[in-house]
Automatic annotation (TrEMBL):
The keyword Oxidoreductase applies. The gene is LOC104745716. InterPro entries: Aldolase_TIM, Alpha-hydoxy_acid_DH_FMN, FMN-dep_DH, FMN_HAD, FMN_hydac_DH_AS. Its EC number is 1.1.3.15. Its cofactor is FMN. Belongs to the FMN-dependent alpha-hydroxy acid dehydrogenase family. It comes from Camelina sativa (False flax). Keywords: Oxidoreductase, Peroxisome. Residues 1-359 form the FMN hydroxy acid dehydrogenase domain. The keyword Cell membrane does not apply. This is (S)-2-hydroxy-acid oxidase. CDD domains: alpha_hydroxyacid_oxid_FMN. It is found in: Peroxisome. Pfam families: FMN_dh (PF01070).
Amino acid sequence: MEITNVTEYDAIAKQKLPKMVYDYYASGAEDQWTLQENRNAFARILFRPRILIDVNKIDMATTVLGFKISMPIMVAPTAMQKMAHPDGEYATARAASAAGTIMTLSSWATSSVEEVASTGPGIRFFQLYVYKNRKVVEQLVRRAEKAGFKAIALTVDTPRLGRRESDIKNRFTLPSNLTLKNFEGLDLGKMDEANDSGLASYVAGQIDRTLSWKDVQWLQTITKLPILVKGVLTGEDARIAIQAGAAGIIVSNHGARQLDYVPATISALEEVVKATQGRVPVFLDGGVRRGTDVFKALALGASGIFIGRPVVFALAAEGEAGVRKVLQMLRDEFELTMALSGCRSLSEITRNHIVTEWDTPRHLPRL
Ligand code: GLV
């Protein structure tokens, strides 16, 4: 049957993938309350569309950190994509380039920064986990720079891995035919089996739990690349991130895989946007599954959004073609949302085009 929205790839991926792999991609932390809330919170935001505006031409193009892209929909970092499909990150990189948008490569990719660069031109960001061994980090950042990556998305919400119970039950580990390619040769590319989640053990062994704001400054001493701080959920931290030199902020709860019972990212977004006072761009990931979600995020002040699981599930179902289709479907839906809301360019999307539950009661329609 024809696929008509990105969510449909989830069930196909579930059918196709080994249980351990599907569960790893799909699950959130503990009760998975935030996992559901990332979706539910979008559903509680409604539109205030404007009518009788000539929407014959819609322009979705935008600029992120100075790089022109075709739409404000980008690819989030997701780890170990060759578990989903043999082409893994190669397929994702090609699909993102074809769509004229940015791909963020995970530190824990099963393809290296050089391999991804070899797929051809494209604007790419590199997601960074800071290892205890800072020499490893320095080397990796240098390689990413050399491979033409344009920014670092520094994950700041993972001093320890969140508790994902299916990974514990499944004794999740990276299949032995794959490696964390960026760390091959450093003796950090394999994941041992553990009595719980192999990834949680790997993180406990290698990732630096002492990471703090001073390390955001340290990172700027080893690279000129702009740093996006990924994992901000409060106005307080947004302000500190700017002081620490961040070029941008990604409002993220790590796909609800870290601390459970944090708010949906779409609920936290506006507080962060207000705190930044326009000094740096704010992006969002988490729960975006529709063009209407993209519009809602932009109306609340995001400069763009990133999608994670839809890419992985489409990759599992149809490889590169699936990822292309996901990006195309979201593009088409977003364009339609703009047209039906009376917005011809991203700058015409305003806070007044939506109404949230935290707005003044007079705006709230009775449900
Ligand atoms: C990796 O970043 C994960 O959340 O599993």
